[in-house]
Amino acid sequence: MTLAAQQKIYLVDDDEAIADSLSFLLEGFGYQVVWFDDGQQFLDTVDLSEPGCAILDSRMPGLSGQQVQQLLNETASPLSVIFLTGHGDVPMAVDAFKNGAFDFFQKPVQGKALAEAIDKGLAHSERQSWKLKHQALIDSLTDREKEIFQLVVNGNTNKQMAEALFVAVRTIEVHRAKVMKKLGASNMAQLLKLAPLLHRPDHEE
């Protein structure tokens, strides 16, 4: 489980005995767990822009698990959130999922079920991290560069784009090169992979 050992698993729970037990349990599945007994300490210490999985207790002194989740949402963190609580109920679980939680367990939890949820959460987090980082690159494009990007992925040649935009082919070549450089793309396949990020519902023009 080399990959699992490289992933970031954060356990935020004020109960040291439970934290020790869960850390031991998850290490048996190949994970390296970093424990925090305080939600604010977790938020202040961890790089929230990196992928990983946060396992949150719902009721803790200071920030609750739900408050930590809300702050993660506000920072657009790609971290997947799994709730693990001894005081869970249906409304709490519904709220957690509504706010983007990946899974919700009540203590005690079966190790295999938790490990499977973590695996899925980490995969989801990696996808979210990739999406957020590349979305930022697309947002850095000028309006004209976005227009060129769209025309390119639609299959237009440089000559066709020049005619459509009433500019010289050389101008298209310059814009196209800038788009490729800004997006870190070296071929058409990479551009096509990024194309769905060009028109988000909250960024429609």
Alpha plus pi helix count:
10
Number of strands: 5
Task: Please give the largest β-sheet.
Answer: 5 strands, parallel
- Name the shape in a single word: elongated
Structural class: alpha/beta
Cα-based radius of gyration, to the nearest Å: 22 Å
Amino-to-carboxy terminus distance: 45 Å
Low-confidence stretches: 201-205
What level of helicity do the residues show?
Answer: 55-70%
What is the helix/strand order? HEHEHEHEHEHHHHH
Overall mean pLDDT stands at 87
Strand order of the largest sheet: 2-1-3-4-5
Q: Percent of residues in beta strands?
A: 5-15%
Can you put this structure into words, describing what you see?
- Pfam families: GerE (PF00196), Response_reg (PF00072).
- Strand 1, helix 2 and strand 2 (33-36) form a beta-alpha-beta unit.
- The protein starts with a helix and ends in an 11-residue tail after the last helix.
- Helix 7 (143-153) packs across helix 9 and helix 8 packs across helix 9 (169-183).
- The protein has 10 helices and 5 strands; from the N terminus they run αβαβαβαβαβααααα.
- The protein has 205 residues and is of the alpha/beta class.
- It has a 5-stranded parallel beta sheet with strand order 2-1-3-4-5, with helices on both faces.
